[in-house]
Amino acid sequence: MSQVQPSLKYTKEHEWVAETSATTVKMGITDFAQGALGDIVYVQLPKIGETVTAGKVCGEVESTKSVSEIYAPVSGKIVAINTDLDKSPELMNSDPYGAGWIAEVELAGDQGLLLTAAEYEALTA
Q: pTM of whole model > 0.85?
């Protein structure tokens, strides 16, 4: 059974969001997603300053099994990226809710359809 953190919000595409301030969130992929992908070997991160739209592709994760798109869980501007993933993409496997985060987004406009932890658990059960 994959791990779900009660304090986070989730998407149906298996991304998570953590509020870091009133206007900024941190995002990543869920434990369920990293488990389904297998060993992650490469991450294409969004670029700082790039505008992302909730539900649209903003990056890519390559594993030994497949290549999967990363969907922006919210709309806004990328203000930080996790450059540690360039050298250690496996952090997404070992610590998807911590050191394996992808980017920070300054919120703008529509925030997509975020799920509570309970709603996400029901989706992945």
A: yes
Determine the structural domain holding residue 51 and report its residue range: 13-111
Which pair of tokens denotes residue 39?
């060993």
Residue 42 maps to a domain:
yes
CATH of the domain at 33: 2.40.50.100
Q: Could you read off the pLDDT of 82-119 as tens digits, one per residue?
A: 999 999 999 999 999 999 999 999 999 767 689 999 99
In a domain, 121, yes or no: no
Rounded Cα distance between 90 and 36, Å, is 14
Phi-psi region of 14 (alpha: psi -120 to 50; beta: other; left: phi over 0): left
In a domain, 125, yes or no: no
8 A C-beta contact, residue 103 and residue 81: yes
